Amino acid sequence: MTALYTGGCQCGSIRYEIRSQPLTLYGHCTECQKQSSSAFGMSMAVPREAVIIRQGQPKEWSRVSNSGRQVTCSFCGECGTRLFHSPARNPQIINVKPGTLDDTRWLQPVANLWTRSAQKWVVLNEQMLNYDEQPPDFSQLFERFRDRQ
């Protein structure tokens, strides 16, 4: 199967491709504020086996998320760009950091997570799914994303 999406880090040391449609796309706060040095970050869930590293080898470190679950974070060891998050709660999924995609024009998140930690100036879109914390499951996010396709 050929790549549906391609991406990589800022310096070009790591290149990847995704060989499946995403499952969902969402924005959120808290840890991603530190990780992105911004007000929020985005995550694009895809089947783990669909992500193929074509060049370079990401470095990894693990942390416990605000939900209390283990997450392995992958990044470029040269430029530090965050590429993927691998949640221990669901080993079939990898969360791609979609700002690393070569084409980001189509990105349109369907949800916001951890909104209780949003910066006061962030205006949440009421048409999106909004959760104060981690949702109990991601079925509504998957459904909403599928409906937009």
How would you describe this structure to a colleague?
The structure is a single chain. With 149 residues, the protein is mostly beta strands. The protein has a single domain (5-132), classed as glutathione-dependent formaldehyde- activating enzyme (gfa). It has two helices and eleven strands; from the N terminus they run βββαββββββββα. The strands form two sheets. Strands 6-7-8-9-4-3-10-11 form an eight-stranded mixed beta sheet. The protein has a three-stranded antiparallel beta sheet with strand order 1-2-5, with no helix packed on it. The mean pLDDT is 90.
Topology-level CATH name: glutathione-dependent formaldehyde- activating enzyme (gfa)
How many separate structural domains?
1
Strand content: 25-35%
Radius of gyration, Cα only, in angstroms?
Answer: 15 Å
Largest sheet: 8 strands, mixed
Structural class: mainly beta
The CATH class designation is Alpha Beta
Taken in chain order, the helices and strands follow as EEEHEEEEEEEEH
Uncertain spans, ≥5 residues at pLDDT below 50?
Answer: none
* Average pLDDT level: 90
Overall 3D form: globular
The count of DSSP E runs of length 2 or more, i.e. the number of strands, is 11
Query: Quick one: CATH superfamily?
Result: glutathione-dependent formaldehyde- activating enzyme (gfa)
Euclidean distance between termini CA atoms: 20 Å
> Architecture, according to CATH?
Alpha-Beta Complex
The helix content is: 10-25%
Q: How do the strands of the widest beta sheet line up side by side?
A: 6-7-8-9-4-3-10-11
